[in-house]
Write a structure and sequence with these properties.
Strand content: 5-15%
Shape: elongated
Low-confidence stretches: none
Mean pLDDT: 82
Order of helices and strands: HEEEHHHHHHHHHHEHEHEHEHEH
Distance between the termini: 48 Å
Number of strands: 8
Radius of gyration: 31 Å
Helix content: 55-70%
Largest sheet: 5 strands, parallel
Strand order of the largest sheet: 6-5-4-7-8
Oligomer: single chain
């Protein structure tokens, strides 16, 4: 996030930022042009998603609500200074959308929408160029605007009209060669419809809709698996691609005033294409992790004392929340029965006691119990198809741990004291 802000600031250093059509939006590095606002969109998705997870409990408070808004204000000022109203609008919608999805109240959402609308109105009314574009948008073919502010939109509509149902053929567009400016970026959808027809345009829109549905489903699946950061990230990526697609197509067909926004994956542009493909790469990785997230079965081994039982209860509850299965192995004491009764997990009991005193017969009896219980635990591990054991101390951990070691099951040991207990040492 910090790198993105630095790049936005660097734009305003003389001879660093490159001006195109009156806007300073690119940093030229030899043959490469970098557009910091595109990198900023990428960074914002990750930052706001992470913030929504880290500050989940305070996001509805005034302090938790204002922190991301301060960052949004700083970035908006830097992007508007280029000037670039379109990217500023997308950044604002992106942040507000993720925050609302993360749980800000409806009143906070309404306040943000009202504030953004007011700032947008001021940005338009204080710029003669933007006012001219809005007026031209109402009637792009009017005699006083068709050769000026309405030139792009009027030629875009002519291009779409010439395409008909099936288009004039790939590469045969007349408008892109002589009349329509920015035909390879902002108005590429109009050229696509002219060359491939209404059928081609509707096919592209259908493909975008499939992509949006896939992104939403992956986001929902991430939340179902308690992967909050991944869920917010995919939702943010969905918002970014959906908003840019909607804005670009709406501008091309005359539903919104002319604004320079690329059509994701289609428009020409180095930074935009790289960022979009990177975002899809992140989505594919998250989806792959969701599919391969194995539901594991744990054997929780704890008995007799609160120092063993209550940590086991806390860990068990968290594992169950994460959709894992838990099987309890104890001795059937009252404290165990009370602690684990609401878990709805299978419970197995072993008859075992620790070494007490120096009586040789008692020690021999304990060793015999350990030997017998090893085979009992091995049977439980195999019948219940246990993936790993978590031991919380107490002598019952000894036969359980040895059984897991014999059949090569992973063993995790929890020790609540600063010094290992005897069972955990073994």
């Amino acid at each position: 996030m910090l790198i993105s802000i630095i790049l936005l600031v660097v734009l305003f250093i003389p001879d660093v930022g490159t001006s195109v059509n009156g806007s300073i939006r690119w940093i030229r590095l030899g043959p490469i042009n970098i557009q910091p606002s595109e990198i900023c969109k990428f960074s914002l998705i990750l930052y706001i998603s992470g913030y929504s997870v880290r500050r989940m409990t305070e996001i509805n408070s005034l302090r938790g609500f204002l922190k991301p808004l301060f960052l949004l204000f700083l970035i908006s000022i830097l992007i508007m200074g280029q000037p670039d109203l379109g990217s500023t609008a997308i950044v604002c919608i992106l942040v507000v959308g993720i925050l609302f999805y993360a749980g800000i109240s409806f009143s906070q959402l309404c306040l943000l929408i009202l504030l953004i609308a007011l700032l947008g109105y001021l940005a338009i009314t204080t710029s003669p160029m933007r006012i001219a574009r809005v007026l031209a948008f109402t009637d792009p073919f009017a005699a006083d605007v068709v050769l000026n502010a309405g030139w792009q939109l009027s030629n875009s509509l002519i291009s779409i009209g010439q395409g008909g149902w099936f288009g004039v053929g790939l590469g045969n567009s007349f408008q892109k060669s002589f009349y329509l400016p920015e035909a390879h970026t902002d108005f590429i959808f109009a050229i696509l419809v002219e060359e491939l027809g209404l059928i081609g345009g509707l096919t592209l829109i259908f493909l975008f809709v499939l992509l949006f549905l896939g992104l939403i489903l992956i986001s929902f699946e991430s939340f179902e698996k308690e992967r909050l950061f991944q869920g917010y990230t995919v939702f943010g990526i969905f918002l970014l691609i959906a908003i840019q697609t909607l804005f670009n197509i709406a501008v091309n067909i005359g539903l919104l005033p002319t604004k320079g926004l690329t059509l994701p994956f289609i428009s020409y542009g180095g930074t935009s294409i790289i960022i979009m493909l990177s975002l899809i790469g992140i989505v594919l990785r998250i989806n792959n992790e969701n599919k391969n997230l194995k539901k594991m079965k744990f054997l929780i081994v704890a008995a007799k004392t609160g120092g063993h039982v209550f940590p086991a209860l806390a860990i068990s509850e968290e594992l169950i929340k994460s959709n894992h299965e838990v099987t309890i192995l104890g001795t059937g004491s009252d404290i165990e029965n009370k602690a684990f009764k609401d878990l709805n997990s299978k419970t197995f009991k072993l008859l075992i006691q620790g070494f007490r005193g120096n009586n040789a017969l008692i020690k021999l009896k304990v060793l015999f119990q350990v030997f017998i219980n090893i085979f009992k635990v091995i049977k439980i591990l195999r019948n219940e198809k246990i993936d790993a054991m978590i031991g919380f101390g107490g002598f019952i951990t000894v036969p359980a741990g040895l059984a897991c070691w014999i059949i090569k099951k992973p063993i995790f040991i929890h020790e609540q004291n600063s010094v290992l207990g005897s069972a955990n040492k073994i």
